[in-house]
Amino acid sequence: MPEIDIPARPAPTGEEFLAMQASPEFQDLRSRLRRFVFPMTAFFLIWYGIYVLLGAFAHDFMATRLFGNVNVGLIIGLGQFLTTFVITGLYVRFANRELDPRAEAIRNELEGPLQ
Q: Which positions of the chain have pLDDT values less than 70?
């Protein structure tokens, strides 16, 4: 079967990009992203700040042994890594469900569907 050459749509102009940026669809996409990212960032920075403050000012608490050589500071430190992975997973799921379909629709409107 012979391949059919479909002419490519010309690249969007600067005016088209600006018009899309002002569109309700783009504003909704941006708003959804910010409603997820800003609270998650604040949560993680506060959580990390508490860890640092506890490490600096609550030595006895952080040195409290839980079992063997494992203390509270080590568990909270490992919790920082766990939190990072959980937030990443939540963001990927959120982006796949909420952001990517909207971004694809905006891209298709601006550039045409992918061939």
A: 1-2, 4-8, 113-115
Residue 92 domain-assigned (yes or no): yes
**Which residues are CB-contacts of 71 (< 8 A; sequence separation ≥ 6)?**
62, 63, 64, 65
Distances (CA, A) of 43 to 48, 73, 75, 83: 9, 19, 18, 10
Q: How many domains does the chain have?
A: 1
Question: What is d(CA 88, CA 41) in angstroms, rounded to the nearest whole number?
Answer: 11
Residue 105 DSSP code: H
Residue 72 placed within a domain: yes
State pLDDT tens for residues 65-96. 999 999 999 999 999 999 999 999 999 999 99
